[in-house]
Amino acid sequence: MRACITEATDRHCDGIWLGVWTKNGRAIRFYQRWGFTQKGTQPFTLGHDRQTDLVLWLSLDDHSKKELA
């Protein structure tokens, strides 16, 4: 995750978006510990099964402030 944040920061991105399956609690908790917050949901299809992802966002401005504190 540090490498992803560093890469996004080096590219002058405002933040990082990602999608995570609603039933993957372990991954959701991991991203939440890194400061990602839920901004919505999006459907996706896996084979013939329609599922839902949470759409998460990490503001790099907010993350940088936490790192400096």
Q: Report the biggest beta sheet as strand number plus sense, adding barrel if it closes.
A: 3 strands, antiparallel
Dominant shape: elongated
Whole-number radius of gyration? 14 Å
User: How far is the N terminus from the C terminus?
Assistant: 19 Å
Please report the number of helical segments.
3
Order of helices and strands: HEHEEH
Give the % helix. Answer: 25-40%
Provide the residue-averaged pLDDT: 92
- Main sheet strand line-up: 1-3-2
- How many strand segments? 3
> Which regions have little confidence, pLDDT < 50, spanning 5+ residues?
none
Beta-strand content bin: 35-45%
Query: Assembly state here?
Result: single chain
Alpha-beta classification: alpha+beta
Concise overview:
The protein has three helices and three strands; from the N terminus they run αβαββα. It is α+β, with helices and mostly antiparallel strands and 69 residues long.
Provide keyphrases for this structure.
69 residues, alpha+beta, three-stranded antiparallel β-sheet
Q: What report would you give on this structure?
A:
- With 69 residues, the protein is α+β, with helices and mostly antiparallel strands.
- The chain has a three-stranded antiparallel beta sheet.
- It is elongated and about 40 Å long.
- The protein is built from three helices and three strands; from the N terminus they run αβαββα.
- The two termini are 19 Å apart.
- It is 39% helix and 41% strand.
